[in-house]
Amino acid sequence: MQERGGIGRYSARLAEALQARGDVALTLLYHGRCPAPLPPTLQGLPRRPVSLGSKPWRAGVAAALVLGLPLDRWLGVRGLFHATDHLLPPLRHAPTVFTVHDLAFLTQPETHLHSNRAFLARMLPRFCAAATLVIADSEATRQDLLRCYALPPAKVRTVPLGVEPRFRPQEPRAARALVAAQYGLTGSYLLFVGTLEPRKNLRRLLLAYRRLLQVRGGAACPPLVVAGAPGWWTDVLHRAVRRLGLEARVRFLGRVPDEHLPALYSTATVFVYPSLYEGFGLPPLEALACGAPVITSNCSALPEVVGDAALQVDPRDVAALADALDRLLSDEQTRQVLASRGPAQAAQFTWARTAAATVAVYREALALWARR
Fold first, then answer.
1. What is the dihedral sign for C-alpha 370, 88, 149, 201?
2. How far, in whole angstroms, is CA 372 from its chain's centroid?
């Protein structure tokens, strides 16, 4: 497990919630170096390195699956194996649960590298077929799985993700002091949080922001702040900023520490997340939990996550995105309404609920395995 991006956060938070329950004995399996530091709540768990010789993990798993080689004796699996990433070793002597976070490589192929698309297109259907049960992060992803892979509906369970307790409205003075000291943000700003990759639709966000500047003028338009780890598309994004003449208006913070995110969300005038496709969508949920007015997309899993607590727009419509930004900047009452709805909407999603639903899937998978 690696706590990088959404999948890493899912793995870590789920493991913590399972550990807190006390009714699941966990062993963390990892390839290469063990992630360090592990969250404090996981540091006492038993850990096992997984090695497939000199081959990379993905190539090794793919080769083993194609050849049908059981890996149980190398992995030392007893009980049940849960694959939280898009990789499932072929296990013949234990039930398996396989989490599918999204099918973006199929629905938005232009947003993925060819090598990644090729691997997932070949292997993901096999992983789903081999698993005892499959977990989807959202009903939207579940429906994608049923449509694209013709899986039996009874095989796929929807288990939404959760939001950490740290994400809640922050004391305004302390939050403003933190973002001013750490990032030099002393006034109003628009915020995006996420990995800088094409699927997040940042190119259209830049176009919408330029349109907003033209409508409102520079003095009435806050800067756009982009927080997130660089992805494979980052150089293209920076070139787009220069080409659009937005260098003085767009701030890139890079990957920010998790402990700073609640303050960034809480002090943002508007949080905007116009992703083309999400299997769930943790950043808008975190922003809602912190009381930020949110604009996000009206597609994939995002409407399930935000409900009526956010403005939803067509992410491919630059004019609609610019209009939504202008509306929230101009209408304090709407911002306040959305800010008041956010924490209540986010409260429906907790990692304790995610863990409870996941344990129910484990029990069902064990029962199915025992009856086979």
1. positive
2. 35
The alpha carbon torsion through 100, 101, 107, 108 (nearest 10 deg) reads: -140
pLDDT at 149: 94
17-5-190-245 Cα dihedral, nearest 10 degrees:
180
| C-alpha span between 68 and 140 (Å, rounded) | 31
Walk me through the domains of the chain, giving residue ranges and CATH numbers.
5-162+351-371 (3.40.50.2000), 172-346 (3.40.50.2000)
Reported as a pLDDT band with limits 50, 70 and 90, residue 298 is: very high
For the beta carbon of residue 116, count every other beta carbon within 10 angstroms: 15
Q: How far apart are CA 93 and CA 80, in angstroms?
A: 9
Tokens describing residue 199: 């699927």
Whether pTM > 0.85 for this model: the answer is yes
Q: What's the Rg (C-alpha) of the chain? A: 21
CB 149 within 8 A of CB 182: no
Contact 328, 295 (CB under 8 A): yes
Q: Are 80 and 50 in contact (CB under 8 A)?
A: no
Strand pairing class (156-158; 81-83): unpaired
User: pLDDT tens across 82-98, in order?
Assistant: 999 888 888 888 899 99
SS (H, E, C) the chain: CCCCHHHHHHHHHHHHHHHHHCCCCCCEEEECCCCCCCCHHHCCCCEEEECCCCCCHHHHHHHHHHHCCCCHHHHCCCCCEEECCCCCCCCCCCCEEEEECCCHHHHCHHHCCHHHHHHHHHHHHHHHHHCCEEEECCHHHHHHHHHHHCCCHHHEEECCCCCCCCCCCCCHHHHHHHHHHHHCCCCCCEEEECCECHHHCHHHHHHHHHHHHHHHCHHHCCCEEEECCECCCHHHHHHHHHHCCCCCCEEEEECCCHHHHHHHHHHCCEEEECCCCCCCCHHHHHHHHCCCCEEEECCCCHHHHHCCCCEEECCCCHHHHHHHHHHHHHCHHHHHHHHHHHHHHHCCCCHHHHHHHHHHHHHHHHHHHHHC
Among 42, 21, 2, 38, residue whose Cα is nearest residue 350: 21
